[in-house]
Each structure stands twice: as structure tokens, then as C-alpha cells.
Write a structure and sequence with these properties.
The structure is a homotetramer.
Chain A: H1 2-10, H2 16-26, H3 47-54, E1 62-64, E2 85-90, H4 92-97, E3 106-108, E4 110-116, E5 122-124, E6 129-131, H5 141-144, E7 145-146, E8 149-150, E9 163-169, H6 171-175, E10 191-192, H7 194-204, E11 215-218, H8 222-229, E12 241-242, H9 247-252, E13 257-260, H10 278-287, E14 290-293, H11 298-307, E15 311-315, E16 326-328, E17 332-334
Parallel strand pairs in A: 9-11, 10-12, 11-13, 13-14
Antiparallel strand pairs in A: 1-17, 2-4, 5-14, 5-16, 7-8, 9-15, 15-17
Helix pairs in contact in A: 2-10
Pfam families (chains A, B, C, D): Cyclase
InterPro entries (chains A, B, C, D): KFase/CYL, KFase_sf
Protein name (chains A, B, C, D): Cyclase
Amino acid sequence: MTTDAVNVSLIQRNDPLASITAAAKQYNNWGRWGEGDVLGTLNFIDAGKRVEAAALVTTGEAFSLSQPFDTNGPQKGWRRRTNPVHTMTDTGVDAERGNQGFPHGFGGADDVIAMPLQCSTQWDGLGHIFDRGKAWNGRAAGDVVTSEGDLVTGIETAAAKIVTRGVLLDVGRALGPDGGSADGELPDGFAITPEHLERTIELQGPTSAVRRGDIVVIRTGQYSRVRRDGWGDYAGGSAPGLSFSTAEWLHTSEIAGIATDTWGFEVRPNEFEGAFQPLHQIAIPNLGLFLGEMWDPDALAHACAADGRYDFMLTAAPLPITGAVGSPVNPIAVR
Amino acid sequence: MTTDAVNVSLIQRNDPLASITAAAKQYNNWGRWGEGDVLGTLNFIDAGKRVEAAALVTTGEAFSLSQPFDTNGPQKGWRRRTNPVHTMTDTGVDAERGNQGFPHGFGGADDVIAMPLQCSTQWDGLGHIFDRGKAWNGRAAGDVVTSEGDLVTGIETAAAKIVTRGVLLDVGRALGPDGGSADGELPDGFAITPEHLERTIELQGPTSAVRRGDIVVIRTGQYSRVRRDGWGDYAGGSAPGLSFSTAEWLHTSEIAGIATDTWGFEVRPNEFEGAFQPLHQIAIPNLGLFLGEMWDPDALAHACAADGRYDFMLTAAPLPITGAVGSPVNPIAVR
Amino acid sequence: MTTDAVNVSLIQRNDPLASITAAAKQYNNWGRWGEGDVLGTLNFIDAGKRVEAAALVTTGEAFSLSQPFDTNGPQKGWRRRTNPVHTMTDTGVDAERGNQGFPHGFGGADDVIAMPLQCSTQWDGLGHIFDRGKAWNGRAAGDVVTSEGDLVTGIETAAAKIVTRGVLLDVGRALGPDGGSADGELPDGFAITPEHLERTIELQGPTSAVRRGDIVVIRTGQYSRVRRDGWGDYAGGSAPGLSFSTAEWLHTSEIAGIATDTWGFEVRPNEFEGAFQPLHQIAIPNLGLFLGEMWDPDALAHACAADGRYDFMLTAAPLPITGAVGSPVNPIAVR
Amino acid sequence: MTTDAVNVSLIQRNDPLASITAAAKQYNNWGRWGEGDVLGTLNFIDAGKRVEAAALVTTGEAFSLSQPFDTNGPQKGWRRRTNPVHTMTDTGVDAERGNQGFPHGFGGADDVIAMPLQCSTQWDGLGHIFDRGKAWNGRAAGDVVTSEGDLVTGIETAAAKIVTRGVLLDVGRALGPDGGSADGELPDGFAITPEHLERTIELQGPTSAVRRGDIVVIRTGQYSRVRRDGWGDYAGGSAPGLSFSTAEWLHTSEIAGIATDTWGFEVRPNEFEGAFQPLHQIAIPNLGLFLGEMWDPDALAHACAADGRYDFMLTAAPLPITGAVGSPVNPIAVR
């Protein structure tokens, strides 16, 4: 298979930079939507996609694809990524005791949160990753993201953009150890290749066909595993995930975004020696592709497996935090 | 008109407690969905509502109803409510300079936020307000919201629930000084009565009919004004908003939620002497009604005014922050 | 020895409440400094103590007794205690690149911190612990510390108070496995009794005599161990520390405060079954004693061991955070 | 007077860069303490200074020179500088109600803070300000302060260093409108020149003589004014403060640090057109001088005025926050 051959040669295990350089050249969308573009592959979503997506709503079931935003989360402090810290500034206990100073029996509770934007279910924005000093569309990284935030591609630019057809590729269930019969889970370190994606689509049937402007949700099953066994090294440790060899698929499929149930989207350990998240380096700055991480597709996956419908309407609206390079999100699938 | 008479008598300006006591008795949903209920009026949303909502998507336009989450926001510190503070832990400037320590030209930007959950566009959860020591469904406030957070009705319980038909009632445009011809704005202190709501529905036409399970988005025009003139006292000062006399309408309409473009949903100053947000005290703990505040309906309102369609599919998914009494949200309207 | 007998009987291993009740009755300072008192044992520090302390400065050496405030710290999220998260809002990299917008070559760096007040070296304030619903001086806990903070004994009341004679009791070096010859370390679980304290004083010599108004700094050696071996369970795990039997010593010695190089001051596991920090329950609400935790006495201890002078001038000024029940502190010893 | 002439010519109102360039050349300590130096003028403090300082303690009075760390503070959001947000994670109200889950009547209160390090009383560290891309000692700004923090001169390097003789120069009382008889206050915009400093020393008498290694505390009286009249534009608005012409005095006096009761140390508006804090640009990166801002000298000033003793032992220990470019501090004066 030609694609296979290309992809295998793409991964030069001892020379990640050579592989990245080659892939960045081949799979690149700079200029595709004009010099001023800030949306990347979200440009593939148009009004027609939203109409198409809405038409998928037939039984009216809704699913949140968000993990909890909880202090008992997987983060361990790497890159100062902690779990969210949620604190109360007023409580029902105070209200009940009558010490809040409000009139006529009014009582209130209020709260505050401090969190890294990458702490739980999230979108990576286009300013999140750079390739050799360049941000999305070929801009100098230092012109885009300063200490003030992302001055160009801040996540607020995508506030109204992420409503489209979603497709679940439940690779864990299709190809995992359970042979596709139950809630399969790919083992840590499993690299999902384009062939795995295509085989999953084939097994799942026609509702899984991936088309331009779709957002693909990959279920590896790792999240099912850590929910059962404990977080362990979910944040940054070994994990199933996309192979670097999917770079071409990500490009030619013309998808608007892709999300996984893992911390880091890519297979870990990465497929190169001494590498760090090389596929991010292609996907975000070169393709302009929106990556979702730490999503929870499990409830949706049960429903899809039950009736064989794998596409749905997906609304995954980031909080429009000015200048943010990503955003927590509660993605909603309706079908 | 009987309703009118009831409502007028409902507002005893010198005795807010008497009015609240009476309204809490008449307009109360405790027990309606069982003792264990944590969703209140979101129970009005069912699969049928979601199908109905999706069917409203015809032109495929999408609108974010979120205000920016920005340090230059309206908060002034009251109840320790600050504007969000968004800071970078890695930047493009660092990546470009090569000081991040990543291999093969990989560069990254990361960020952190600290914010009150009520700082910008938000949902009030059911644990946000208490009536004389009682939370939603008659629970003791101190059993529900402690310093640990909302142990019962935390916003995470609503993670997948808020997808339904939305109806914009552009009261500002319909009844504001411009007489409905342009982007009307109600003046601060304008109390929107049930009659104003009904008159707006009538003026807007049949797509504005409010039905069980809908979420109503009220545009007063105050947000248009502060965007033009500066925040001023947007956070807590005088504002147009719902009259206490709408308590019955909120109850009998069987809506799932209601949101405004103002800081505090209710008219301010409140209609009673020495009162503080009395309608909240009915709506949240007694009706179990979800209130949205600081929404931005302006772009949607333009579109609705242009073609006379005032209903749409609304997805307003809170972040599932464990135990939160509210959540920032980026509500998405598609039509 | 009578004291010994009393103390042994004090610890009823199966009935912590009985022991606490008895100790709270015997060792109690409520009312000692008047009904309105907010300072507890800090009242033992007077101008004379400060003059006495200053007179101890002979060689002019200064030591910080603070551990680092660092993201790579010991906290693991228990009670939402994280390590500090320090982020930059402006950097030198930005300044150098010229993107800050300041005139005439001015560049700036600025920063922000989010942290629990108990995350690193700290004082426990008098509102930090309660005994059966009572705070220091017999006040109802709910009258003192609400969601607004400590309304009565907030740490700001001690802003100028904590300058006095300090005495290092290097119990680790005196009684640890090295037999006192080197940097001894007590093993985890080692309960320091009054006899151990007295024996240490005796071994260290006359500069170690503990007097009214002093602040005693206890070195167990655990911090030396974790610096060498890694944090492990430093935050909340097993540790050497004060025995519950020191309650009387803490009372009769009339010290103004006491600090340790451990997370939690007391021996852990605690000496009772099913107990949690029982000595805190006596020391803070009943004695009004200021407790320091997570201090780093190591550099000071080396100097003291070298010349046999164990007393010094101690300035341990909390940040006057309004309503805080404790404060990070950088204690400075000068001798 | 030669100095005067030099200084006047130093201020070229239309050309701040020329003035800064000239001053940076003349008043510069780069290399004075070796290439690796991270302490700047704190090197002037030695053991002898600490002994000298301790000898000033005669009456044993202690003063906190810290302003409150309080949500109701002066910050308004400029450069994302907010007031501190202090929240409780456990309270006495919860403890009293018995909902904390601790055994034997143990109750606890805990708290969290989020704050800019420059929000209230603080030290500027040596990485806080840059001069044309250079940090203290001539290092490239981008080598010193990245998004990770100050990798070289982080405030933790000064943890044990700031104990020395302090001298209060109460310029407000000496030269303010009250003519020295009462709590004088300099008007906003008043530029304190070297002559004003010398005149104050002369009026205050011999205990005010400024010597090598001292820390000078300047009282302008502005803080007295805002405490009385409200914060107004205390954070960044007009203020009395040091004239750019003091650059030479700051250099030749060989002081270890200097602090004021104002937001920004320098006179504001600055003495140049279109300038921003030009004296900072000399003092921090070129002199290596530690600047204290937002100190509260008022209680100390009353005592000094009463008995004419203007020098004291000053302990102003920053929190050793790894990589911070400044630190909140509670400076303690004992005399």
C-alpha cells in the first residue's frame, strides 16, 4: 500500500526533526484561507455543515463528552498544570446561620476557580504549539503569543465556530483486546495508524464515514481504564494515541478537528527517540487543526455501539477567554 | 386583568419578606420531580425538545451568546468577584527564543486562569441562592452547599442537560425608546412585567411563542449600551430587568431557563425598599429555575430582527466543575 | 516522675475524645488576656522580650527558616492544598523582543501567585483549628471564621507581634540515630515527649533554656531527609513530631509559639486510634498557641551546633492578609 | 552646587532616553560584585550591619510597615494587577455544623490566596525591570526572566539577606504643608530631590544619617491621605515620589534598598514627556537597588517623631517564591 509505505518512511525514528520537516512541508495549510486567517481547519465548517449536523438529531439523546473539572484529577504539576482548585466565597452553611448580611432571608453561595486551561477536557487553540518558531499560518511565534496571551489566534476567535457533524471512531471497541464485542481498550503505547482508522470506519459502518468539516472523536478506551483503575500517569505517561503516520490522513480528510480520550492525542511514548509530541508540531501550526484532549466519549460510545449510528451533532464551544491558547470545554453530542 | 391585579398586590414595597413569602408559596416546584431531584426546571427538557430544537436549524447560522472573559471586564470586587485573570505559563516569545527545552523545534504556549464563576456569561446553578435557609426542593441550605462546594446540586449534574429550543425576547427592540425600529435599549431601572413579555411576543410574531421546556433569552439592550459607553456600574448597578411580578409567568410558562444581557436578571434597583434580588429568591430555590446572566444576545438579535425568526436551537453547556454553584458558559444558538 | 505518669494516663489510645476533653480542661488559657483577646500566647511577647532578643545578635549571622515556595513542593491536593502556582504576566523575553509597549527601552516583568496559605512554611493562626465548635478564647467557631474569613482573629492582628527570642531544640541531632554527633534525624512516627525536649535542652546547654515568651523551633530532621530522598508523603504522611503528652509542657512553659520542620507539628500517625491532629485541638483553640509548620531549620542548626549557641533573635512576620487563618512566612533568625 | 547642576541637566524633559542613557552610564554597579552576582546592593549588608541594627533596639517597640493584603485594595486591573482574592476552603461555620468529617470534635479552617506579587506591600526584585533589554549586572533580559520565572535573580536568592539598619526619612512631615509640625503630606506630583532628602536628614537630626548598607524608608504622606480619603488613583495615578535627579544620591549613598509609601516609588507624573518610571530603569537594572513600594510607615513615623530617633532594626524578608521578580513582604521595624 502506497500510503503505508510513505508513512513508514515518514517515521525516521532516530531523526524526528527530519520527519517533522518533511511532514510539515507536505501537510501544510498556510495561506489556504488567506494571510489573515485565524481559524485554520475550522474554516471547513460552514452553514451547510451545521444544517447537516442538525439533521442527525433523531432520537434526541444528548451526551456531555466532558470529564469532570475536579481537584481529584490527573494533573501532577508538570508545566505547572495542576488540577482545578474550586473554592467557595459564600456557602449554604453561612446562609443558614444567617451571617451573610442579606435582607429578607436571602442567602447566596458563590465560587471561584483557579485552573490551567489544559487541566481537563479542552481544545488546543492554534497558538498552543509552534514549529521551529512559527505559529499557525507561518507567523512568527513571538508575534502571536506573548505574556499578554495570544494576540492573533486567541481562542475567542473560535467562540461561535465549533458546531458541526461529529463522528465517533471507537478504535478501542473496534480493534481493542475484546475484539470489538465490548468496551474495548487499546493498550498504552498503541499507535493508531491510518489503517486502524479506516478499519474502524469499515467495522462501524456507513454512519462513520469521515467527511470534510467533520470533527472526529477518537475513543481509545484509556479513559475507561483510568476511571476504573485510577489516574496513574494519565497526564503525560504512556498512552494509546495517534501515530505520526496519520499526518497525511489528518490533512487529506479535511476534518475540522479531532479529539481523543487521552491526555495528549498522540501515542506515548512518541514514535521517535528523544521526541516530544511531534504530531502536534504538524497538526497545530502546520495544518491549523483543532485538537481536543481529555474528552470522555464513553457514554456516547455505548449509545453508538447499541444502534450503530456513529455520527451526531457536536457543539463544542470554548469559553471565549481573550488571548487564551486553549479552553476548557463541555462538548455536547446530540443525536 | 386578573394576573395584573395579583401581581401588583404581590409587590408590597415596604415588606419584601411578605411578598417573598407569598410568592414562594404560590410559585413553588418542590417535590414536583421527586425528593431526590437536582435539576429543577431542566426536567422540562426532554428528548422531544431536543428534536424540536434541531428542526429549527434551517439556515445554519451560529451565534455565540457569550461576553468576553477578559481582565477588562465589569467586575469591581464586590463579593470578591473580580474579572478573570488569565496568565501564560509558556509563550511564543519563549518558544521563538529557544528557551523552553523542548526537542526538534517544538514550542508550546500554555495558560492558567483564576476567576469567579460568576465573572462573565454564566449559569446560576440551583445551589446559588437560598430562601430563608432552604435550597432547591426544600433542602436545608447547609446540607447542600458547604465550603466543599455544592454536594447535591453541583452544576456537574446539568452537564448534558441544556440543549433545547431557545426563544429570544428582544424587549429592548420591541418596547425600547426606538419604538422597535432599531436596536432599542430599555433604560436602567425599567421593570419588565409579564405584560411587557407578552407584548414583545405579540410584536415579534409566532416564532416567539414560549412553550414548556424552552429557554428564554431576554435582550434589554443594556449590554449594547455598556459596550458603547463603557462598563460603568454594569456589575451591580441600576439596570433594566425582570419585575418581581413575573414570578407567576416564570412558573406557569414552564420554561427550563431564562437568561438576560444584564448582570443580575432582575430590575435594579429592586422594586422593594431595602431588598436584594428578591426574584432570585423565588426563581432559584422555589422554582428550581436556571438563570443565565451576562449573556450577549446582540448578534443573534440582529439576525432575528432581520428575518423575523426568533426561535433557535440553544446549546448552553456549563463546565462540569464538581460542586460549583454556577458555571461560565458559551451559549451557542444555531438557526 | 509525676509528669510522666500524668501524661501517660493522658493518652487513652482508644478514646481520643476523653483525652482531649481532659487536656482541654487542664491546659486552657481562655480569658487569661481578657474576653476580647485575639493574640493568645503572643501576649507573652513584650517589649522586654524584643530587647532581650536583639541582645542575642553578636556575630550578625542571618538565616532564613523558610522552605521554598515552589510548584515542585510536597502538596498533593489533600483538602485542596496544592503547591503554589507562580506565573508571569510579563517577562524579560518579552522586554527584550520589544513587545511590551513601554517607552525609552523600559522593560518589565510581573508575576502572580495562587496558593493555599498552608502550602509551605507557615503560621497557623488562631482561627485555623476548633475544639468541639469552639475557637480560641471560647468563641463559637461560626462567629469567628465564616466564608468571609476570620472576622475576629485574622492573621493581620499579629502583623507586628512576632519578634522575640527564638530557641532551637535540635531533637534530631540530640537524640537521633547518629547519637548527637552529626545531623541526626528522628524516624517517622517518633513521638517527642516532654522528656525528650528536656533532655535536648540539657544536652545543648544553657543557651537552650526555654523561657516565657520564647518561640521554640523544633528540628526533627525529617526535612533534611525529604530534601535528600524526595518529598514522598511529607504532606500528611508519617512523621516525627510532638507527642500529645507535651500539652502540659506547651502550657506551663508559657512559650509564645512553636514551629517544626514537619508538615503537621504532631507525631504522625497520631497516638490515638482514629484520631486526627489531637494536639492541634488543644494547642490552638485552648492554649491560643501559634504553631509554625514546614519550617527549615537546617542551616541555622548547623551554625548552632558549631558554636553551641542555640538562641537567637527571631522575626517571623506573617503577611497581614485580612481574615486569613494562617500565613506563609519567611522566618528570619539573627544571632 | 555642582550636584544640582548635574542633576538638573540630567533631566532632559523631551528626551527621556538621552537622560536614561547618561544616567545608566554614570550610575551603574555592573560587575561591582562579580559576574555571577544576584544580590546587587544587598551586598552592602554584612554581618556588621546586622549587629549595628540590633544595637538600635532599645525600647523594644515593633512596627509592621505593611499595608493590608485585602480585596478592598487599590488595584484596578492595570497589567492584570488585581487586589488579592482570599477564599476559605473550610470554615468555622462548617466546623460548628459538624459537616467536615473530622473525628473527636476536631474542626478546621483553611484558606487560599490568588494575588499579583505587586498587589500590596512588596519588594521589587532585580528581575522586575530592564533597561534596553538588559537586566541587572548586564545580563540579557531574556536569559534572566522567561515564562518560567526569574531563572537567575529570583527573589528566593534574597531570602535571608534583608536585615539591616533602617532609616526613616519622613519627607512628608519635614517638608510637607504642615511645615514639619504634624503628619505632613507631600502633594501629588511633588518630586523629591536630593536636596529634599538632605534637608529632611538635617531637620530630623543625627539618627537620620544615611550610611552604606542601610535601607531608607521614605514617607511622603500619600498613604495617610488615601487611608483618609479613599484609594482613588493610588495605583498608578499622580503621586509624590523620588525625582529622577536622585539617581546619583541613590548610587553614592551605597544604600541597600529604599522603600516608599506610594505605589511606584518615583514621582508621578514622571518628569519627562511620554516617560514611564524612568528612575526604575536606572535603579533596578543599573544599580541593582532593591525598591520597596506600598509600605506603610505611618505608625513608625509617629514614634520616630515623638522621640526623634529615626533609625531602627529592619527585617523585611521576602517570601522565597522560586523565580519571582518581587515579593509581598511584611517589613518589621524594631527600635
